């Protein structure tokens, strides 16, 4: 489906809607002639039922413009305004379907007619172009169609309606009026205002409401849960202190070099424990008691036993095992805010 009247020359099929014969020549005559010269199809619809003389003049004028097909829209009836508009819209839709139209041009200034035709065209998914002059649409972006090559055809078509105006060269003077606005010049351009269909307003998706109990914070622990977390943290600290003390002296010989594999694993485990508690629980008290349990256990196990046995012998690895866990605990506790877990 084409979305604009671009005079591209081969596949345009345009429905023109005007109030009465003669308007097609005055408002859109050059455009009709250009479309027909490019091989496009054109149908003209009139709101007013023409008299016999007007019908003959309309046929002659459209022949001058290279087109002949015109139809009268349903006349006003006793069915009321709403009924008349429905009948008008139905007739426009039938003309659109019969022609397989790609666009609709409205030259009528009557608001009711323009609104009915525009609505029918938009329902059919077609663009609508309203015949407008710069004076009629100040500040609006108009589409200008160059009809200079077809102005003579437009002038001949205008001469078919001597009761409505007179022509002197390229100047047209409306009959039965002395107003200055009744004199205009037949120029080499015709301008249109495109009226696009209104875009539907998207329906916002309702955000599901989650019930949050009063005075409840998602990161806040109840007293019972916090007590369990504190006790669990303390036990975990003691457990990791025992396991680390037992394993920190383990080494792995690679190419004659003794690697402190036990000490490394112990440090990683301590860091993972304290950091994990800080992320999951988010309570410094729990992390602090885990660190206390860890450090007290290391201190107690580093003392010489009653039989003279020592689990933390003097030396580099023993010194590191008594100092580094305290540094890790201090770093985790002192860090201002850890990034939250992704859910």
Profile the largest sheet: 7 strands, mixed
Helix-residue proportion: 40-55%
Can you give the mean pLDDT? Answer: 81
H/E element string? EHEHEHEHEEHEEEEHEEHHH
Briefly, what CATH class of the largest domain?
Alpha Beta
| Second CATH tier, the architecture of the largest domain | 3-Layer(aba) Sandwich
Envelope shape: rod-shaped
The Rg value, from CA coordinates, equals 45 Å
Oligomer class: single chain
CATH superfamily of the largest domain, called what? LmbE-like
Low confidence ranges: none
Number of strands: 12
Q: How far apart lie the N and C ends?
A: 47 Å
* Separate helix tally: 9
The CATH topology name of the largest domain reads Rossmann fold
The number of distinct structural domains comes to: 2
Structural class: alpha/beta
Strand content: 5-15%
- For the largest sheet, list the strands in their spatial order: 3-2-1-4-5-10-6
Notes on the protein architecture:
This protein is an alpha/beta fold and 343 residues long. The protein has 2 domains: 13-195, Rossmann fold, CATH 3.40.50; 223-334, no CATH class. Helices cover 44% and strands 15% of the residues. It has 9 helices and 12 strands. Helix 1 packs antiparallel against helix 5 (151-158). It is rod-shaped, with a radius of gyration of 45 Å.
